[in-house]
């Protein structure tokens, strides 16, 4: 799985909506996902394939139905790699400010 595939998958608002739907209720079928969105079944299927290719969802067959599950690991990798490192300095500064203010109150 490449991080580029994850970014490409997340770039589309329809795919982000599908991920939000799975976050709210994991394990939905294609029919359930179609009901919650104003997209054709074919469009939802196409978006799900891209999300699965990016490893953002996984599927499990149960009889004739296929259930879709959110895989948050690639998103966490993005947070760690691209967001976390930019938050460290501001968080350290806020922590230092808090310690300074708490020291002045005593």
Structure description:
- The chain is an alpha+beta fold.
- It has 2 domains: 1-71, Arc Repressor Mutant, subunit A (Orthogonal Bundle), CATH 1.10.10; 73-106.
- Helices cover 68% and strands 13% of the residues.
- The protein contains 5 helices and 3 strands.
- It has helices at residues 3-10, 13-24, 30-35, 41-53, 73-105, and strands at 28-29, 57-62, 65-70.
- A 3-stranded antiparallel β-sheet has the order 1-3-2.
- A hairpin with a 2-residue loop joins strand 2 (57-62) and strand 3 (65-70).
- The longest helix is centred in the C-terminal third of the chain and has 33 residues, at 73-105.
- The radius of gyration is 19 Å and the shape is elongated.
- The model has no long low-confidence stretch (mean pLDDT 90).
Write the SSE topology.
Blueprint: H1 3-10, H2 13-24, E1 28-29, H3 30-35, H4 41-53, E2 57-62, E3 65-70, H5 73-105
Antiparallel strand pairs: 1-3, 2-3
Offer a few descriptive terms.
elongated; 3-stranded antiparallel sheet; Arc Repressor Mutant, subunit A; 106 residues; alpha+beta
């Amino acid at each position: 799985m490449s991080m580029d595939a994850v970014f490409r998958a997340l770039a589309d608002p329809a795919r982000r909506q599908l991920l939000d739907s799975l976050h709210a209720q994991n394990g939905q079928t294609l029919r359930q996902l179609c009901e919650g969105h104003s997209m054709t079944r074919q469009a939802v299927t196409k978006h799900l394939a891209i999300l699965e290719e990016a490893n953002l969802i996984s599927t499990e067959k149960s009889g004739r139905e296929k259930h879709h599950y959110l895989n948050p690991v690639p998103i966490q990798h993005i947070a760690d790699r691209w967001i976390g490192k930019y938050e460290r300095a501001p968080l350290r500064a806020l922590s230092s400010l808090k310690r300074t203010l708490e020291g002045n109150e005593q």
